[in-house]
Amino acid sequence: MGEIDYNAHTIKVCSHSNTTGKAFKREEVDDTFWHELTHAILYEMDSSLYDNEAFVGQFSRMLTKAINSAEF
After folding, report:
1. Strands, E, within 14-58: which ranges?
2. What is the pLDDT confidence band of residue 71, given thresholds at 50, 70 and 90?
3. For the chain, what is the total number of helices (H) and then of strands (E)?
4. Buried (b) or exposed (e) across 10-42, using 16+ Cβ within 10 A?
């Protein structure tokens, strides 16, 4: 659903499935953006966690929830 280009400093997030054409839920798009941004931040920090999908996924889900609900 999303991809990051570290060299070009860009994040792309798809809003529709390439196979079905169906729109993704807003929460899925938001989570994907925060997921990719988490990768970018960790990469810029030279953290080895930048490519740890388990960590990035869990962190970005919690970040999405906090931002969308204002509950920390």
Report:
1. none
2. low
3. 2, 2
4. ebebeeeeeeeeeebeeebbbbbbbbbbbbbeb
pTM of the model: 0.85
Which helix H or strand E contains 3, and what residues bound it?
Answer: strand 2-5
Distance CA 70, CA 28 (A): 18
11: part of which helix (H) or strand (E)? strand 10-13
Which whole number is the average pLDDT over 54-69? Answer: 92
* 16: its two tokens: 């529709």
User: Distance between CA 33 and CA 27 in Å, rounded?
Assistant: 10
Distant-in-sequence, close-in-space partners of 43: CB < 8 Å, separation ≥ 6: 4, 6, 50
